[in-house]
């Protein structure tokens, strides 16, 4: 890490964050006193079994939910107490979502699917086209821009979904089980692409229950019963090897 990067504020700063729900008259502690730092350019995997709190943590990081207590700073902006309309603006500008089920619109081409969030952001037509084509080129689909999802393989559909998340270059890519709907070989290809994008400077937070997937990240945050612990990932182990 160079001096310039060392002096930067973390992209994500979560301090003593907790999330509680009321269920059947009882209080459920989904997250308990969590603190996390994620720097620009990090590749972080959050892993945990069903019910561990990882989905709740993902929703908070993705500005889909707000904490009960604690603070969440995203790209130097305190977002934990914002109202839903403001959270929607933050999501639109600063987070590119990658979903397990792709979430592509079947009647739209690859280009049109990638262009859609840029329309919501109010990006002008010419710039919108440039950014959508650039994003599809980054994921190796420059020759598939006019294909509809039904004309693409599962791996190609996930690449379109990744391009959609990349469009407009949001500060963070949030990937929810991005290989979960893919066969093993295609999953390996998609993870290779994710690592390539990270090397290009994209910050990635990946949610998974798969240990082999999580270990390909630079950092692994394990969550259990709403609490976290960190482990070394593939990148960290390489850096510390002789």
TrEMBL record:
InterPro entries: AAA+_ATPase (IPR003593), ABC_transporter-like_ATP-bd (IPR003439), ABC_transporter-like_CS (IPR017871), ABC_transpr_LolD-like (IPR015854), MacB-like_ATP-bd (IPR017911), P-loop_NTPase (IPR027417). It comes from the Bacteria. Residues 12-242 form the ABC transporter domain. One of its GO terms (molecular function) is ATP binding. Keywords: ATP-binding, Nucleotide-binding, Transport. The keyword Magnesium does not apply. This is ABC transporter ATP-binding protein. It comes from Paenibacillus spongiae.
């Amino acid at each position: 890490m160079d001096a310039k990067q060392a002096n930067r504020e973390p992209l994500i700063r979560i301090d003593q964050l907790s999330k509680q729900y009321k269920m059947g008259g009882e209080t459920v502690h989904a997250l308990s006193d969590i603190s996390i730092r994620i720097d620009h350019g990090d590749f972080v995997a959050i892993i945990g079994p069903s019910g561990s709190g990882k989905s709740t943590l993902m929703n908070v990081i993705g500005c889909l939910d707000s904490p009960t207590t604690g603070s969440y700073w995203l790209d130097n902006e305190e977002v934990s107490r914002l109202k839903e309309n403001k959270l929607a603006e933050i999501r639109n500008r600063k987070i590119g979502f990658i979903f397990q089920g792709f979430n592509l619109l079947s009647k739209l081409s690859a280009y049109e699917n990638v262009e859609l969030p840029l329309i919501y952001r109010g990006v002008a037509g010419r710039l919108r086209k440039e950014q959508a084509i650039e994003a599809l080129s980054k994921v190796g689909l420059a020759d598939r821009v006019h294909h509809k999802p039904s004309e693409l393989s599962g791996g190609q559909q996930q690449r379109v979904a990744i391009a959609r998340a990349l469009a407009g270059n949001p500060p963070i890519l949030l990937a929810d089980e991005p290989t979960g709907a893919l066969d093993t070989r295609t999953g390996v290809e998609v993870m290779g692409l994710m690592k390539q994008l990270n090397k290009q400077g994209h910050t990635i937070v990946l949610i998974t229950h798969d240990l082999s997937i999580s270990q390909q990240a630079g950092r692994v945050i394990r969550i259990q019963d709403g609490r976290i612990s960190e482990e070394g990932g593939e990148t960290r182990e390489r850096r510390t090897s002789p």
